[in-house]
Amino acid sequence: MTPNKKKQKKVLKSKSKDAAGKDSKKAETKNRTTRKAIVKFDPLQRYLMEIGDYKLLTRKEEIELSKRVREQGDTEAAYHLVTSNLRLVVKIALEFQRVWMQNLLDLIQEGNIGLMQAVRKFDPYKNVKFSYYASFWIKAYILKFIMDNWRLVKIGTTQGQRKLFFKLKKEKQKLIEEGFDPKPKLLSERLGVSEREIVDMDQRLDGWDVSLDAPLKDDSDTERIDFVAADAESAEEQVAKKEMDALLNEKVIKFKRDLTPRELEIFENRIFSDSPVTLQQIGERYGISRERVRQVEKNIIKKMKEFFKREISDFDSYTIPVP
């Protein structure tokens, strides 16, 4: 073999080693990327960590920012009001998620829209804390989302299942307060459904609970509750709430004055009752069909919504409490 051929062979070996080294590095990089790609991504965890960076505002700061929004249309001030109250939205969304079993991030998204509406509508010259006012709008938007998507959250098809969906937890709490152990048999007798339905519904409702004490990550001591600001009612909030409740009760009484005797019975014994009577019972009393009772009920609810929109400005009918 000539010297030139030996030299060429040596160069080829060197290039081959370099190529093999590069291929090895590429393979290692690819493996690292693959390992990173399969790491579980929790969008809720990411969101909670992000909103935890926004500082809470003092009452004085809230009022100043609210005035700038109301009088100048200041978008930067509106941004600060929204971001400082994102944790309030999470807190309210968690409460609804426990009962309605909706996707938590969907509820948060709708609640955030309600929060932005509250920022636009808030009057800083009234003696009401912004977070209290905003909670009405947040709840209204979340409830509207749930009702608009009722087919997605409806978990019962029989009358007994629907009754359970709304009343099971309330009935269990009532029994505990009365000193009874809320076992399926007793609940079955109280609610008029089978024990099997009680057990099934109880498991479904409990299975969707989001624990505030759950850690954000397996190796973290930080819990979700750390990102939800405690928002105990102040004295002025309690006064404002009492005033609002008094106003609502006054309007309900006024609304009832314009109802016929038949409409009033449906209103009190169906719409605003904790233990509504059946359509059949009302139908038999007035000699009309169940479907006709349903139509009258639907019309009363429509009239009530229109009445409250006329009587109370900037108020969503979904926030009306049962008297």
Write up what this structure looks like.
With 323 residues, the chain is mainly α. The chain has helices spanning 3-37, 43-51, 59-72, 75-83, 86-100, 104-121, 130-148, 150-153, 159-177, 184-191, 195-207, 235-257, 261-271, 279-286, 290-311. It starts with a helix and ends in a 12-residue tail after the last helix. The model is unreliable at 34-38, 151-157, 207-218, 222-237 and 316-323 (pLDDT under 50).
Percent of residues in helices comes to over 70%
Task: Identify the CATH class of the largest domain.
Answer: Mainly Alpha
| Gross CATH architecture of the largest domain | Up-down Bundle
**CATH topology category name of the largest domain:** Four Helix Bundle (Hemerythrin (Met), subunit A)
Q: In total, how many domains does the architecture comprise? A: 3
SS content category: mainly alpha
Binned strand content: under 5%
Helix tally?
A: 15
Largest sheet: none
Measure the end-to-end span. Answer: 105 Å
Low-confidence stretches: 34-38, 151-157, 207-218, 222-237, 316-323
Specify Rg, calculated over alpha carbons.
Answer: 30 Å
Shape: globular
Strand elements, count: 0
Mean pLDDT reading: 73
Reading the helices and strands in chain order gives HHHHHHHHHHHHHHH
